[in-house]
Design a protein that fits this description.
- Its cofactor is a metal cation.
- Pathway: Amino-acid biosynthesis; L-methionine biosynthesis via de novo pathway; L-homoserine from L-aspartate: step 3/3; Amino-acid biosynthesis; L-threonine biosynthesis; L-threonine from L-aspartate: step 3/5.
- It is an enzyme of class 1 (oxidoreductase).
- This is Homoserine dehydrogenase.
- 36% of the residues lie in helices and 26% in strands.
- By secondary structure, the chain is of the alpha/beta class.
- The protein folds into 3 domains: 149 residues, NAD(P)-binding Rossmann-like Domain (Rossmann fold); 166 residues, Dihydrodipicolinate Reductase, domain 2, CATH 3.30.360.10; 83 residues, ACT domain (Alpha-Beta Plaits).
- Strands 7, 8, 9, 10, 11, 12, 13, 14, 15, 16 and 17 form an 11-stranded mixed beta sheet that branches. A 6-stranded parallel beta sheet has the order 3-2-1-4-5-6, sandwiched between helices.
- The longest helix has 21 residues.
- It is elongated, with a radius of gyration of 24 Å.
- The N and C termini lie far apart (56 Å).
C-alpha cells in the first residue's frame, strides 16, 4: 500500500447523527493534535447525510446526500456511522476494493458480513477498523486482537448493552417491575422509542459475534449466537437473586468449550444471568458497559467504561482513524482478520450451563425427593436447594451444577408436568461460584 499523496489523509464521513456530529466536531477542533499523532493532516473531505438541509450546524460545502459518490471520490478513509446492513455494505465493499481504509461502528454489518469485508480489505491492502462497534469508548477489541494475540483466551463475558443494564440495575435497586422500569428508561433517554433491538438481545448478540470471532480466531455470525432478552425478567426473579446473594444481568457470554474427547468448540450466547454480587460485573450499574476476559497467561482482565453516547463512541472512532491514517502515511498495515482456528460453533443445547429453578409445589412429605429424582433421571446434579413453607404450598428453589442446556431444559419441562408441582415460577441461568 502506497503512502498518501501529499501527506494529507482525506476522510469521508457517512452519517452525522449523535456520534457523527461529535466526530466531525473533534476532527475540526483537534485538527492540530490529530495531525501530530497521525503524522499528517487529517482532513474532512465530505459528509454524507440523508437530508443536508437538516444540518445547518455543519459546513454546508461538505454536505452531500450521495454517499456512494462520496465513497468513490478522492478520499483515503471512509468513516461509516450510518448503521444497518444495506446499502452500507456495498459502499464499504466499494471503498475497501479501491484500497480506501474503513473505520466503522456498524455492529450489525460486522456481525453478519465481517468475513466479506475482511477479504476485500486483505485483497487491496486496506485497513478495516471497528473499535466503536462494541462497548463504545472502552478499548476492548484492539486488546483482543492485538495485545492478547499471543495468549489463549478461554472466555469473554460482559455487559455490552447499556439500556438493558440500566433497566436491570434499576429493578434491582428499586424492586420495580420490568414494564415500569422500561418506561422510566425511555423517559430518561436510555431506551429508544422502539427498544426491541436492546431489550430482546439483538444488539448484544451482534456484539457477542464480534467478540467471539476476535477472541477465538473463528468466524462467528449473529445467527450463531443464542439470544434471549430481558422482557420476561420479573421483580420476583430479582428478589430471588438477592436472596441468593446474586444479581441479574444480561450478559454476552463467549467461551471456548472442550469436549470429553479433547476437541474444542465455541459457545456464544446472550441471555439474563444470575451472578454473585462479589463478581466484578455485578457492581456495574446504570448504562455502563463492562467485559470480563479470562486468558491462560494474562489471567482475568476487566474492561469498564461508557458503552454508548456521542462523545465516548466518537473517541473510539477517532482512535481508529488516527491508527488508519498513521498506517497510510508510513505505508504500513493494521492487523488482519484472524480466523485460522475455525472452531465449530456449539449449539446451545450442548453448551454446559447452570440453572436456578423456582417452583411452587404441594406442601406434603416426599415432594423434594420426587423432584430430585426427576433431575437425576435427566442426568442433572443439584448444587443447592432452598425450601420455604406456605399455607397449603411450598416454595422450592433449586440451583444445579453444570449440565448440557438441553438436559436442563428437559428437566424443567418434566418437573412442570409433575402432579406435586403447581407451577414452575421462574427459570434463569447462573454464572459464577455456588452460593
Amino acid at each position: 500500500m502506497s503512502t498518501v499523496d501529499g501527506k494529507t489523509v482525506r476522510v469521508a464521513l457517512l452519517g452525522c447523527g449523535t456520534v457523527g456530529t461529535e466526530v466531525a466536531r473533534l476532527l475540526t477542533e483537534q485538527a492540530g493534535e490529530l495531525a501530530a499523532r497521525a503524522g499528517a493532516p487529517v482532513e474532512l473531505a465530505g459528509i454524507a447525510v440523508r437530508r443536508p438541509d437538516k444540518h445547518p450546524e455543519l459546513p454546508q460545502h461538505l454536505l452531500t446526500s450521495d454517499a456512494a459518490a462520496l465513497v468513490e471520490s478522492d478520499v483515503d478513509v471512509v468513516v461509516e456511522l450510518i448503521g444497518g446492513v444495506d446499502p452500507v455494505r456495498e459502499w464499504l465493499l466499494t471503498a475497501l476494493r479501491k484500497g480506501k481504509s474503513v473505520v466503522t461502528a456498524n455492529k450489525a454489518l460486522l456481525a453478519e458480513h465481517s468475513a466479506e469485508l475482511s477479504e476485500a480489505a486483505d485483497a487491496s491492502g486496506a485497513d478495516l477498523y471497528f473499535e466503536a462497534a462494541v462497548a463504545g469508548a472502552i478499548p476492548l477489541l484492539r486488546p483482543l486482537r492485538e495485545s492478547l494475540a499471543g495468549d489463549r483466551i478461554t472466555k469473554v463475558m460482559g455487559i455490552v448493552n447499556g439500556t438493558t443494564n440500566f433497566i436491570l440495575h434499576a429493578m434491582d435497586s428499586t424492586g420495580a417491575g420490568y414494564a415500569e422500569t422500561l418506561d422510566e428508561a425511555s423517559r430518561l433517554g436510555y431506551a429508544e422509542a422502539d427498544p426491541t433491538a436492546d431489550v430482546d438481545g439483538y444488539d448484544a448478540a451482534s456484539k457477542a459475534a464480534i467478540l467471539a470471532s476476535l477472541a477465538f480466531h473463528t468466524r462467528v455470525t449473529a445467527s450463531d449466537v443464542h439470544r434471549e432478552g430481558i422482557s420476561n425478567v420479573s421483580a420476583s426473579d430479582i428478589a430471588a437473586a438477592k436472596a441468593l446473594g446474586r444479581t441479574v444481568k444480561l450478559l454476552s457470554i463467549c467461551e471456548r468449550v472442550e469436549s470429553a474427547d479433547g476437541t474444542e468448540s465455541v459457545s456464544a450466547r446472550v441471555h439474563p444471568v444470575m451472578i454473585p454480587r462479589s463478581h466484578p460485573l455485578a457492581s456495574v450499574g446504570g448504562a455502563f458497559n463492562a467485559v470480563f476476559v479470562e486468558a491462560d497467561a494474562a489471567g482475568n482482565l476487566m474492561f469498564y467504561g461508557q458503552g454508548a453516547g456521542g462523545a465516548p463512541t466518537a473517541s473510539a472512532v477517532l482512535g481508529d482513524l488516527v491508527a488508519v491514517a498513521r498506517n497510510r502515511v508510513v505505508g504500513g498495515r493494521g492487523p488482519r482478520e484472524s480466523a485460522h482456528a475455525a472452531l465449530p460453533v456449539r449449539p446451545m443445547g450442548q453448551t454446559p450451563t447452570r440453572y436456578h429453578v423456582s417452583l411452587d409445589v404441594a406442601d406434603k412429605p416426599g415432594v423434594l425427593a420426587q423432584v430430585a429424582q426427576e433431575f437425576a433421571a435427566q442426568g442433572v446434579s443439584i448444587a443447592a436447594v432452598r425450601q420455604r413453607d406456605r399455607t397449603n404450598t411450598a416454595s422450592l428453589v433449586i440451583v444445579t451444577h453444570l449440565a448440557p442446556d438441553a438436559a436442563l431444559a428437559a428437566t424443567v419441562e418434566a418437573i412442570g408436568k409433575m402432579d406435586v408441582v403447581n407451577e414452575v415460577v421462574s427459570v434463569m441461568r447462573v454464572e459464577g461460584e455456588d452460593s
